[in-house]
Amino acid sequence: MTVITIDKACCKGCNICLTACPKKIFVKSKKRNNYGTAMPEAKDPENCIQCRMCERLCPDGAIDVEGDKQ
Amino acid sequence: MEKTKDTSEQVVLQGNEACTKGALYAGCRFFAGYPITPSTEIIEMMSGEMQKAGGAFIQMEDEIGSACAIIGARWGGSKAMTATSGPGYTLMQEAIGFAAVTETPIVIVNVQRGGPSTGQPTLSSQQDIYQARYGSHGDYGIIVLAPSSVQEMYDFTVRAFELAEQFRTPVILLADEVVGHMREKITIHKGVQSFQKPKQKYSVSPSVDFFKGNHTTVEGQLHDELGRRIGHLADRSGEFIEQITRKIDDHVDMIADISTYCMEDADVAIVAYGSVARPSLNAVKKARGIKDDRILPKFRMVTDLFRRGVTETIKTDYSHLKVGLVKINTVWPFPEKLLRQATEHVQMVIVPEMNVGKYCREVERVLSDKKVIPMPKCGGNIHTPKELLDEILEEVGVDE
Amino acid sequence: MNKLYQKYIKTESLPTLFCPGCGNGIVQYAAIEAFDKLGIADDVACVSGIGCSSWIPCYFELDVIHTMHGRAIAFAEGLKLAQPKKKIMVFTGDGDCLAIGGNHLLHAAARNIDLTVVMVNNYIYGMTGGQKSPTTPMGSKTKTSPFGCYDEPLNGCKLVMALGASHVARWTTAHPVQLAKAIEDGLEHKGFSFIEVLSQCPVQAGKNVYGEKDPAKIMEGYKECTYRYREGEPPVEGKIPIGTFRKDETATEYLERVEARLASEGIRK
Question: Which of A36, B305, C218, C261 is deepest in the core (most CB within 10 A)?
Fold first, then answer.
């Protein structure tokens, strides 16, 4: 079970996560972050392999991956 | 049991050496520097003494690095100092501004030489008097001490460290080539002075040293008490500037220090600071017929010959001149109140300086009701007592 | 918000002042990942100069000095000498480190003093609005090189290696795991560690310098234009080497050298 959260207050909408994710879990959405730009959303988090590349590559620490896979 | 052992001893030292000894006594345990005439003896002596005292010494790549390293070391918890002259002091200005804005207590010794630029590496001057106060860009408060003897090189260095820690500000020891290189018998103390942290906090910036678990943020931009930047907020930035200048200006009484000589009945006062206070004192003594007991006549003749190539003989009678001396020890902040008090009954003030007449303007501003006569002297030679007395004589003569 | 951020970042200061897609945040994360892995956050102090990348440590829940332009290494040397047992980390940029702070870098590297310097190289002066920096590639059009840059770019890694830095590595923001490992190595290494991070400034450099303004695509580009350096293997023409260029554990560190010298002279035990 994986829970992926994207912090609205931290995200600036750079979309790096879209390409960073090997499983292409992040997709563009119509939601706006506090910064005022379109923020991504995590689609199908059950596909997540918890490589945590998105956590590492998000320049604003907005993404948190909660899960038990090693 | 209380220790009653006398820890003082008398030694003959050069001014620059006395400064080093003073720093060690004050608990300075970090020195970063770069050799420059005429302050080099300080870095030379520090390189050995600091290591022996268990502190750290580093010869940096330039004066910019030296001034930065001592700020870094101070946040690491070591009392720190650097020493330089003219061009090096100019390079240190940005770090002085940084120390002022971050309220880092450091001591910088400027053994002044003639400028501008490379100027006169081996001759004395007092041309940096305004640079010491206003050198770095922006508004800030600063404390500047001007020693006029080897003993004062020692005492003022100790005092500089006290003031720096108390007010959390950079303190400049504004010496010059004359006091830096002369040798005198002085009293120094063994060991390390015990220093009690002041009860009142004068600073507004974070002040806990590093690695104490406080997570101190030292910020060169204008900041709040937690070190967070406020440079983009006009109101708060204004308050901050006011606070870092007023912490000095509002406590001038605690900082300011002057010495007076024969001022009780004086009609004319010589207001001097640094090495120029020496011939000024001599002039007062000559006019008053006081025998100079500090220097043996024979020794004086030799030094005079060595220094100027001629022995000055005073034939004119100055005995009718009631001259006194006001020696300013803390040149910045300007000791307005003390100077006014000391010169209350004086009609005329003469301000000899080894520059084009800079500090005189400050004296004029404060003593606007008196006749203030600038007596600038450029070129590297210090005023002679005769020059001072002749100037007074001329002015008094014109008056009558 | 990310867990590590909550642990090591002053969350009340967020969001950071970096532009969207800036590489500095990735370096920030790599650094806190290294602190977390080593568990030494209490023994680390950070020093930085001026520039975008010098804002990186200002968000850390650590002792931090945000100093003057180019002077971070000089401050760090003073701090290190006053606290020899602690780890001092310097965050700096290409302009801060190689241009205005070049002299301090040269001498710190030559001393092999125990500092960990992370130089974030985005090939541009970002904070002032996109002027050429000492690393801007030839021909790149910037605000101060309107006809294309004609200064030979500096290679920071080669420079410090020539001077005797004992740990030198280069990674990019597209290699966050390796970067975190390099920072970890740097903190553990006794001696001068220089870690160059090729980073992106999509806003100020963008198309003119990288030929691309989308941060993700610039990072993809970094993967393509670099090759993994391995000792003894021939260099790949036209590509930038990345990896650990030197890790010399035998080189004597500055403070050790000082202590040994003082001991030999009988000044200290």
Answer: C218
